[in-house]
Amino acid sequence: MNAVLLVGRILFAFIFITSGITHFAKLEAMTGYAKYKKLPAAKFGVLISGLFFLLGGVYIAIGLWVDLGALLLAITLILAAVIFHNFWKETDATAKQNEMIAFNKNIALAGAALILFALIAFGSLTEFGPSVGSLNFFDF
Which key words tag this protein in UniProt (predicted)? Predict the structure, then answer.
């Protein structure tokens, strides 16, 4: 079971680690896209989302504070879905379909991250190692 969880964590985290790195490596291009989508403080938004993706992915991959990493990812993914992939505003059929696919991908990944957060923060999966939830930061 532990090997499966390790492989699953790494596979899930990989897309976020690479995305976080891309946010920094292609900062100007991503800032231009954020400005096109009318994001206020576009460069700051790109930096913060890149940091959240990178930290969230690394936390999940290495098994340290997986709940916090999953929460960072879920927040960023939901905001990105609503702000950047608002398919309901598109009039071109192809653009609308592409934005809907990206929106659905982000929402599905956010759902998976929230499931991971809940399982760890509330003690259902302790195989991941230390978590913020075990420190009672998320004790509801």
Answer: Membrane, Transmembrane, Transmembrane helix
Contacts of 110 (CB under 8 A, 6+ apart): 73, 74, 77, 78, 81
Q: What is the mean pLDDT of the chain?
A: 89
Domain positions in the chain: 2-135
Which tokens hold the place of 118? 């809940």
- How many other CB atoms sit within 10 Å of the CB of residue 79? 17
Return d(Cα 79, Cα 54) in angstroms, integer: 16
Contacts of 57 (CB under 8 A, 6+ apart): 13, 14, 15, 16, 17, 19, 20, 69, 73
| Consecutive H or E run containing 102 | helix 93-121
Is the pLDDT reported for residue 140 higher than 60?
no
Give the other-Cβ count within 10 Å of 41's Cβ. Answer: 11
Task: Give the whole-angstrom CA distance, residue 130 versus residue 62.
Answer: 11
Q: How long, in residues, is the chain?
A: 140
92, HSE (Cβ side, Cα atoms, 13 Å)? 4
Q: 20 near 55, Cβ under 8 Å?
A: yes
